[in-house]
Write a structure and sequence with these properties.
Elements: E1 5-8, E2 11-12, H1 18-29, E3 34-42, E4 47-54, H2 56-73, E5 89-98, H3 102-119, E6 124-128, H4 139-142, H5 150-153, E7 175-179, E8 184-190, H6 195-205, E9 210-211, E10 232-233, E11 240-247, E12 252-259, H7 267-280, E13 285-291, H8 296-309, H9 318-329, H10 339-342, H11 344-349, H12 361-369, H13 377-400, H14 409-444, H15 451-492, H16 498-523, H17 529-562
Parallel strand pairs: 5-7, 6-7
Antiparallel strand pairs: 1-4, 1-5, 2-4, 2-5, 3-4, 8-12, 8-13, 9-10, 11-12
């Protein structure tokens, strides 16, 4: 299963004492499964923004410990700074990054609020997607009056906190916990030094737009509604804030934007609107700049958007999709753009390398042929399955670009996308199968002195064995999904590549049968016979079906070759 990832961006009311900041971040890093991405202290604001990421449960635990530590170290009764604030931990938003919905993230926010409210003597208010009432959705509404207003607010029934005591905590203040979308700080570069012209583009793009004027759009009198409020002409992009400014370091003007809801306005759409507005004004967008890190999907969505504009298949390698996004957005104009440093998921992968996948072909073959029992048949089966579906994906991409088939490119692009997804699942399982085998070896090496140690060792061996069954079984399931793409490419793909689809079918059948051998041998050591009987029955059904599908695909291939 793909990992669920959430980001946490707590803001602490301390930006000057680096020892206090370090103690808080050390607490965060003490939680296994959490990666600290960024620490941004500000002296003038006397505030530090910390960013960390991981699976939900570790992130919630790290956030709780950080709030607890901040309450110990920061005395709000002595705090001053330029930024609005109401607590030692002022805000603590949770943000969905990968494979998790906003609704799920909001539940984790409430889990954090409930735990912190129970354990710490601090009032907690839930905001944005975790808000318990509409008037608390906006953070500014919760923070009105800041820390100094808390003694009075805590005495009012309408200010009863969502979690924690309804009383003023002079030292820690109060904290807002929320669930919100990822915020992207994004600058678009222009071929001008004029801030006024950059602002004109920003006003065209941002949701707030510009003030409506009579006659001259710059100097004319402001149009007002019946309440005397200025009438505004909305911009093209909702959930986007923006202004124009001049960057002396680069000698250019930029449109500086905050994208507050990337589901409403993705990065590439904001960029496109900047391009359109600039062209109308005789300007040109020369590139852009990402401030901070972004989720992988932001880059993949952008790359696929631009590929579709070119009527090209989107079923290509992830790295190539990202390359298209970087080049089209001009993200490397001002400085080199390294995806492994700018994409959150890639930052996490750096801590969990895939040793087999990172080998070259010779190295992988040599490692397989060595005296070590791993990688073995399970890893090889996963890799053979990945090669099989990769061949079918290649046929789909060749078909998408075949001369005379221009109107069919979307169909083949969809098949290539499916093939890429299966390929990526199988490649992940190459290393996971070897890790599962190593897990069994580790369990067997556990101490077995007293009865308690023996029981723990036996339980660990059974758990590791079950995992070593489940991994090759997932190889079988993923490879079975590959057959659909392989068969379709044999039937409708570029006829010049039909034999590649045939080889893909042979690889897929070998992968299913090979993985099932691993399932069977590991089942012999598992005591849960109900699980064993079920998985062997389902596995044999897949083997039989794979045999049938391979024969049918090869019949299609041979018929096309004969004709």
């Amino acid at each position: 299963m793909p990992k669920q990832l959430i980001e946490c961006v707590p803001n602490f009311s301390e930006g000057r004492d680096m020892d206090i900041i370090r103690q808080i971040t050390d607490t965060i890093e003490s939680v296994e499964g959490v990666k600290l991405l960024d620490v941004d202290p500000g002296k003038a604001t006397n505030r530090t923004v910390v960013t960390f990421v991981g699976e939900p449960e570790p992130v919630v635990q790290a956030a709780f410990l950080a709030i607890q530590k901040a309450a110990e170290l920061i005395d709000m009764s002595k705090h001053s700074g330029e930024h609005p604030r109401m607590g030692a931990t002022d805000v603590c938003p949770l943000i969905p990054i990968a494979n998790i919905s906003m609704e799920e993230v909001a539940r984790y926010a409430h889990q954090l609020g409930e735990m912190a409210g129970r354990e710490l003597d601090i009032p907690f208010f839930m905001y944005e997607s975790a808000a318990t009432r509409p008037e608390r959705r906006n953070l500014a509404s919760i923070r009105v009056g800041e820390y100094e207003a808390l003694p009075d607010k805590m005495n009012k029934p309408e200010w009863k906190p969502d979690y924690g005591p309804a009383r003023f905590n002079a030292r820690a203040g109060a904290t807002a916990i929320g669930a919100r979308d990822f915020l992207i700080a994004y600058n678009v570069n222009l071929n001008t030094t004029s801030v006024r012209r950059a602002n004109s583009v920003a006003f065209d793009v941002r949701e707030q737009g510009r003030v409506k004027r009579e006659g001259n759009p710059i100097t004319g009198p402001i149009v007002r509604d019946e309440n005397g409020e200025a009438v505004r002409i909305p911009g093209a992009c909702k959930a986007v804030k923006g202004i124009g400014w001049f960057i002396e370091e680069y000698g250019i003007a930029q449109i500086s934007m905050n994208l507050t809801d990337i589901n409403t306005t993705p990065l590439h759409i904001a960029f496109e609107e900047c391009v359109k507005s600039s062209e109308r004004r005789g300007l040109r967008v020369t590139g852009s700049e990402l401030v901070g890190l972004v989720p992988l999907r932001v880059m993949l969505d952008a790359g696929k958007y631009f590929l579709k504009k070119q009527r090209r298949s989107t079923g290509i390698a992830e790295s190539e999709i990202i390359k298209i996004a970087v080049k089209t957005l001009g993200l490397d104009e001002l400085a080199p753009f390294d995806p492994h440093k700018k994409i959150i998921e890639y930052q996490l992968e750096a801590d969990h390398p895939a040793p087999l996948l990172n080998m070259n072909l010779r190295g992988f073959a040599n490692e397989t042929a060595s005296e070590s029992p791993a990688p073995g048949g399970g890893s090889i089966s996963a890799y053979v399955g990945a090669l099989g579906v990769s061949l079918a994906t290649m046929v789909a991409n060749l078909s998408a670009h075949k001369r005379g088939w221009d109107e069919r490119w979307e169909t083949f692009s969809e098949w290539a996308d499916k093939g890429q997804q299966v390929k990526d699942r199988l490649l992940h399982l190459v290393d996971e199968d070897t890790e599962a085998f190593n897990g069994i070896m580790h369990a067997f090496r556990l101490p077995k002195g007293n009865d308690e140690e023996k029981a723990a060792r036996a339980e660990a061996i059974q758990a590791a064995t079950r995992h070593a069954i489940e991994v090759p079984f997932r190889v079988m399931e993923a490879t079975m999904d590959a057959f659909e793409t392989i068969r379709s490419m044999a039937e409708i793909g570029n006829p010049n590549s039909v034999t590649d689809a045939g080889v893909g079918a042979l690889c897929a059948r070998a992968a299913v049968q090979g993985a099932f051998l691993n399932v069977r041998i590991n089942c012999g050591d598992l005591k849960d016979r109900g699980f064993v009987d079920d998985i062997l029955q389902r596995g044999q059904q897949m083997v039989d079906q794979a045999d049938t599908w391979e024969k049918e695909i090869m019949a299609i291939v041979n018929e096309k070759m004969d004709n």
